[in-house]
Amino acid sequence: MRVAYTDSDVDLMARMMRAEAVGEGKQGMMYVGNVIVNRAVADCLDFRDVRAIRDVIFQVQGGNYSFEAVQKGSLFYRRAREVEKKLARKNLNYWRQHPAKYALWYFNPYAPCPPTWYGQPFTGQYKNHCYYEPEAGTCPSVY
User: Fold this and answer.
1) pLDDT tens-digit profile of 23-34?
2) What is the DSSP letter of 74?
3) What is the spatial distance between Cα 80 and Cα 112, in angstroms, rounded to a whole number?
4) Which end of the chain is more exposed for a tag (fewer CB within 10 A), N or C?
5) CA angle centred on 124, ends 118 and 125, rounded to 5°
């Protein structure tokens, strides 16, 4: 298990994975799940005070929720389906894969992925999302 979780956390994470990446299929949702779990275990940068899945999902940065789907996502507020819950459990227990294996950020630029995002290096792209991990040495807890 990568992070302690409850059934409520599984539901919450499954809803976020679907809201953020349903158009990218199961693989895309799994990458979003990697970022969520990575933020829960990261003891660095903007993620020092988030240890639980609920903390990650509802984290506010710069006056806005970190995940746009919390504010604007109708999919986020629909009940989680069993398929997404299964994917969330897989992420929470063990699954990590490139390009999101160590990623703490992702976004859809609607253009080519920039080489850095808030000063952090680009690790790869899956369909519409670009993934970024902490600069080497700045966040050993993610690795």
Assistant:
1) 999 999 999 999
2) T
3) 31
4) N
5) 100
